[in-house]
Design brief:
Blueprint lengths: L2 H24 L5 E5 L3 E8 L11 H19 L6 H23 L3 E9 L2 E2 L5 H18 L6 H13 L1
Antiparallel strand pairs: 1-2, 2-3, 3-4
Helix pairs in contact: 1-3, 2-3, 3-4
């Protein structure tokens, strides 16, 4: 893993943990604080599952799944073209996954606090780690669409394999 990915991951993890500490310090569990009426609230929740509460009360399965995801993402770093956007994407993924993994191991749940109502839909409460994961995935999808999922070394190997067949 290169330095840029590591720096982005550490910054993401630090922001995630700091905002969770602040949320737990200043918010009461399951109480909402209105920031923008009918749009944005701070609501401290404990999520015992994964996204949208799936796999509720399956902490061990989610922890193992997260560790597998971290391993696979580490492997894919070497497949992608090296550029700032891809480094940022991988750093966001590592930092976000690590932030929620720490919560699951230490507390047994993930601390969520960002609560949005969009077009009268109460979107599930989430945190900085969740945002980082989603943004990282979107950036990597963009990289795949642009053909950056094959770096020069892998591209040369694939081309030479095709020629020998």
């Amino acid at each position: 893993m290169n330095k840029k990915i590591l720096i982005f991951a550490i910054i993401t993890l630090a922001l995630d943990q700091l905002t969770k500490i602040l949320a737990c310090t200043f918010l009461n569990l399951n109480e909402s604080v209105k920031i923008i009426n009918h749009f944005f609230y701070l609501t401290l929740c404990h999520n015992f599952g994964a996204a949208w509460g799936i796999f509720k009360d399956s902490k061990i399965i989610i922890i193992i799944g997260t560790l597998i995801a971290l391993f696979l993402i580490y492997h894919f770093i070497f497949c992608f073209k090296k550029n700032l956007r891809n480094d940022f994407a991988f750093g966001l993924l590592f930092g976000g996954l690590a932030g929620n993994l720490i919560d699951r191991i230490v507390f047994g749940y993930v601390r969520d606090f960002l609560d949005f109502y969009i077009f009268k839909y109460d979107y599930p409460v989430f945190n900085i780690a969740d945002m980082a994961i989603v943004i990282g995935v979107i950036l990597l999808i963009y990289a795949v669409i642009k053909g950056e999922d094959v770096n020069e070394t892998n591209s040369t190997k694939r081309t030479s394999k095709r020629k020998t067949r």
